[in-house]
Amino acid sequence: MEVVIEKLDHQFRGIGYINGKVIFVTKTMPGDKCEIEITKEKKNYFEGKVLRYIKFSEKRILPSCPYSSFCGGCDLDHMSYEDSLFFKKKMLEELFSKNLNYFESIFIESCEKSWFYRNKLHLKVVEGKVGFYESKTHRLVEIKECKIAKHSLNAVLKDFSMYSFSNGEIMIRTNDNDEILMDLITEDKIEILKDFLSKHKIVGILKNHKCIYGKPFLFERRNGVLYQVSFDSFFQINEEMSKKMFCFIKNVLKNFEKILDLYCGVGTLGLQLYKEKVLVTGIEIVPNAILNAIKNAKLNHAKNFQFHLGKVEDIISKIPYSFDAIIVDPPRNGLDPKTRDVILKMKPEKFVYVSCNPMTLIRDLKEFEDDYRIESVQGFDMFPYTKHVECVCVMSRR
Ligand SMILES: C[S@@+](CC[C@H](N)C(=O)[O-])C[C@H]1O[C@@H](n2cnc3c(N)ncnc32)[C@H](O)[C@@H]1O
Q: What are phi and psi of 252, to 5 degrees?
């Protein structure tokens, strides 16, 4: 079946039509003419995959990653970096104008280092082969290198065959000093190999989340702030873009003193805002991240910081203070309705929403429309060549 791709949807899938019914096709772009196979049929739409390109869009480029057509990690590497930014900007502008009557142009801060930027990889190991699962399957795509991962992670990947590790998962993270922290999830026997240690700056190895060598954390530095980050704590994966985003947020909140930092991770955003008079309260669900946050306040001599362990939706209503600014940085599923209600009742003057999922961002912001005016929206290309984009929306109370 032949389809001509006319535009992209919000997940950057190509949109075409079959007898007037819409079809979404991944890895395509406007101008592509392709032979497709229908993979899903719903009442109002189809989903399909490309069997053969009949004509390429003039804008299409050759993917630079050999695993691109299977792996599903870099959904946009068939377009130039500039075009990927163009489509991300267009997507955000469409969502904000259609849903929130916000018609301003949205700037997306670009990433100079658009390849080899990720500081964390989560790999699967199947019968001694290391790689990622093909998108929406349990079929392994064996990889020798990941073009979005930092070189220090790829160097570890190359040497991983030193381990006789046959089945399981590997989580590897690295930092701005190229140090390596690994968590190996497996029933296989794991030895600490001297040759491996001598080739990489290994700070810690864990097996099934238990430390078997070195320490279970590493340190990161962002804009002069030092962070301890445990193996299971969240930390922004793109050093360059996180620094730019933190500067932006710091500037927005520079005149605020009582700040509630929801989904605070290792105290990341709050500590960027540290200055003498600032009082920051953070809430986070991961115990090690809260321990990191407490440690990080000490490491950076930041007073007047307090952190609460637990679910934001359970704790937020029990916090007995008022705040003049609230910053939220939730996971992809966005804010819980209870959390939205309590924020509205708290009536902060400024409300900053950091989001990695524009769809849940828009859903949540609709609840704030009556009470808050959108001051600015800015994108940060935290995940180049993937369909993801980080977005910061700054709102002030009407
Ligand atoms: C996108 S990260 C942001 C972390 C931090 N603001 C940063 O910039 O590094 C989201 C954080 O929310 C935490 N989290 C997820 N669900 C949560 C919940 N229901 N309550 C509290 N924290 C949660 C995760 O563990 C993670 O640390």
A: -65, -40
* Span 28-55, pLDDT tens digits: 999 999 999 999 999 999 999 999 999 9
Looking at ligand 1, which atom is closest to the CA of residue 283?
21
Q: Is the dihedral of CA 337, 342, 348, 352 positive or negative?
A: negative
Which atom of ligand 1 lies at the shortest distance from residue 330's CA? 10
Does residue 289 line the site of ligand 1, with CB under 6 A? yes
Residues in contact with 20: Cβ distance below 8 Å, sequence separation at least 6, in sequence order: none
Q: Structural domain boundaries of the chain?
A: 2-60, 85-112+219-397, 120-216
CATH code, 85-112+219-397: 3.40.50.150
Do 85-112+219-397 and 120-216 have matching folds? no
For ligand 1, what atom is nearest to the CA of residue 289? Answer: 27
Nearest CA to ligand 1 atom 20: 311
Low-confidence ranges of the chain (pLDDT < 70): none
Contact call for residues 72 and 48 (beta carbons, < 8 A): no
- The residue whose C-alpha atom lies closest to atom 27 belonging to ligand 1 is 265
Check: pTM over 0.85? Answer yes or no.
Answer: yes
Q: How far away, in angstroms, is 235 Cα from ligand 1 center? A: 9
**Tens of pLDDT along 326-353?**
999 999 999 999 999 999 999 999 999 9
CATH class in words for 2-60:
mainly beta
**Nearest CA among 85, 334, 327, 119 for reference residue 242:** 119
245 Cβ inside 6 Å of ligand 1: no
364 within ligand 1 shell (Cβ under 6 A) = no
Beta bridge partners, 327, equal 261, 352
